[in-house]
């Protein structure tokens, strides 16, 4: 089935053809007709399956039916897209402008880490679509520099990540000022936990559901490999793993911001073109690092989990877990940067014995064993034992709480049902919201 069969205008079809997109992905095929019909929607699909197009294309069609603007030009936005991170906001903005290049769509982004005044000026000029992170949007709400009174479509992108990062109080503040009547709300995410489904009941009205792949599904085109190593030799092993092909683009995940900076410096000293990206970097530094990585000016990007969701890095061949994530689901999101759109990818993890319990959690989540192979010259003094691994005690702290706190600190298939699925209401989550 082609995009033309979904009822999109010639102007949008022309833009898609110029971008080389001729066939909708499964999530787009299911979501676009439902959004065009005006339904509230919950859509879940694994990363790299075209979720942005699933909401951006029908939104543009509703703003410009048949390729012409629907209604008079106005200053206040009609569409609000909320994202958990600055990078994802910028990426959604780029996709929206690409899809709407022949429509004259006006859009802008507002997020933290940059000055307020240019954003205020852009808001005054007016736009059709506003893409924002929750924290900075609330800053503008408090200063009364943004008008949300005409919003008739709200998109919550990467909703599960927003919950992880403690944005729920911020979302409630924002939704409290949005028009309720005739507002369409769309929730898109890589996964939907039971907690997210319950919270969606507060925001969506009679939502239909689209779930293209089961929760925590990974692309079959990704090859998984674990290299066991003594903790004291991890950095040397990382250098040798990357040196197998120093021209190959690789995304390396570190657990901490300080660790990411340290690794990037060590890799640069070792002769690699590397940079770090994390929540403590200025927005300018984050934007430059990502742009340099996408263009090939640098070949190694060292990141914390802020880069695990939503970043579209075409044909990325390798993801390296220098540190395993503390929460197994984050492994799925990290490696989802590779093996996208049918391309082959590698997920390499460097694992010391004190991380064996984390590897065990990942294998249980994936319901499969990951190949373990010694890298030449780095056989550990003690063989990696997953079956006897024990989790270090964390008195008084649950794993979900650790996950949410870490996200805040870093700043960053089935057919759709034919009827609405009722969800019970959940108690509000008590978190400080993060500034992205």
Can you walk through the features of this model?
- By secondary structure, the protein is α/β, with parallel strands linked by helices.
- It has two domains: 3-211, 3-Layer(aba) Sandwich (Rossmann fold), CATH 3.40.50.300; 222-366, Rossmann fold, CATH 3.40.50.
- The chain contains 15 helices and 13 strands.
- The strands form two sheets. It has a seven-stranded parallel beta sheet with strand order 3-4-2-5-6-1-7, sandwiched between helices. A six-stranded parallel beta sheet has the order 8-13-12-9-11-10, sandwiched between helices.
- Helix 2 runs parallel beside helix 3 (51-63) and helix 3 packs across helix 4 (86-99).
- The longest helix has 14 residues, at 86-99.
- The radius of gyration is 22 Å and the shape is globular.
- Residues 395-436 have low confidence and may be disordered.
In short:
The protein is of the alpha/beta class and 436 residues long. It has 2 domains: 3-211, Rossmann fold, CATH 3.40.50.300; 222-366, Rossmann fold, CATH 3.40.50.
Q: Main beta sheet, described?
A: 7 strands, parallel
Based on CA atoms alone, the radius of gyration comes out at 22 Å
CATH homologous superfamily of the largest domain? P-loop containing nucleotide triphosphate hydrolases
Write down the overall geometry.
Answer: globular
The count of DSSP E runs of length 2 or more, i.e. the number of strands, is 13
What portion of residues is helical? 25-40%
- The average pLDDT is 83
Would you identify the regions where 5 or more consecutive residues have pLDDT less than 50?
395-436
- Termini separation comes to 38 Å
Report the sheet-strand fraction. Answer: 5-15%
How do the strands of the widest beta sheet line up side by side?
A: 3-4-2-5-6-1-7
- When the domains are counted, the total is 2
User: Regarding CATH, which class of the largest domain?
Assistant: Alpha Beta
Judged by helices, strands and strand pairing, the structural class is: alpha/beta
CATH topology of the largest domain: Rossmann fold
For the record, the CATH architecture of the largest domain stands as 3-Layer(aba) Sandwich
Q: Helical segment tally?
A: 15
Could you spell the SSE succession in H and E letters? HHEHEHEHEHEHHEHEEHEHEHEEHEHH
């Amino acid at each position: 089935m082609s995009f033309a069969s979904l009822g999109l205008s010639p102007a949008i079809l022309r833009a898609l053809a110029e971008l080389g997109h001729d066939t909708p992905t499964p999530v787009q095929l299911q979501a676009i007709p439902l959004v065009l019909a005006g339904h509230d929607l919950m859509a879940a699909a694994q990363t790299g399956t075209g979720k942005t197009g699933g909401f951006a294309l029908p939104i543009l069609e509703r703003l410009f039916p048949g390729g012409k603007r629907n209604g008079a030009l106005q200053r206040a936005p009609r569409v609000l897209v909320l994202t958990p991170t600055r990078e994802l906001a910028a990426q959604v903005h780029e996709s929206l402008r690409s899809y709407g290049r022949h429509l004259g769509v006006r859009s802008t982004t507002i997020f933290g880490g940059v000055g307020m005044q240019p954003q205020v000026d852009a808001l005054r000029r007016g736009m059709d679509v506003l893409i924002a992170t929750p924290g900075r949007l609330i800053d503008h709400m408090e200063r009364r520099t943004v008008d949300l009174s005409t919003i008739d479509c709200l998109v919550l992108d990467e909703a599960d990540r927003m919950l992880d990062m403690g944005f729920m109080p911020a979302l409630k503040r924002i939704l409290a000022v949005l028009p309720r009547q005739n507002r369409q709300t769309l929730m898109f995410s890589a996964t939907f936990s039971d907690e997210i489904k319950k919270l969606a009941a507060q925001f969506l009205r009679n939502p239909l559901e689209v779930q293209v792949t089961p929760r925590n599904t990974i692309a079959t085109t990704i090859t998984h490999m674990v290299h066991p190593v003594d903790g004291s030799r991890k950095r040397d092993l990382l250098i040798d793993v990357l040196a197998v092909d120093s021209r190959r683009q690789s995304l390396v995940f570190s657990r901490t911001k300080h660790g990411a900076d340290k690794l990037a410096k060590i890799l640069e000293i070792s002769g690699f073109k590397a940079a770090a990206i994390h929540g403590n970097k200025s927005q300018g530094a984050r934007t430059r690092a990502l742009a340099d990585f996408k263009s090939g000016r640098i070949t190694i990007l060292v990141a914390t989990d802020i880069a695990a969701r939503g970043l579209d890095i075409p044909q990325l061949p390798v993801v390296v877990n220098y540190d395993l994530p503390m929460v197994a689901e984050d492994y799925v999101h990290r490696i989802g940067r590779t093996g996208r759109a049918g391309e082959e990818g590698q997920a390499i993890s460097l694992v010391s014995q004190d991380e064996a319990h984390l590897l065990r959690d990942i294998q249980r989540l994936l319901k499969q064993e990951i190949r373990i192979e010694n890298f030449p010259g780095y056989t550990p003094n003690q063989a990696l034992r997953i079956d006897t691994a024990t989790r270090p005690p964390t008195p008084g702290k649950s794993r979900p709480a650790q996950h949410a706190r870490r996200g805040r600190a870093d700043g960053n298939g089935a057919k759709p049902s034919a009827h609405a699925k009722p969800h019970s209401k959940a108690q509000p989550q008590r978190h400080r919201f993060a500034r992205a």
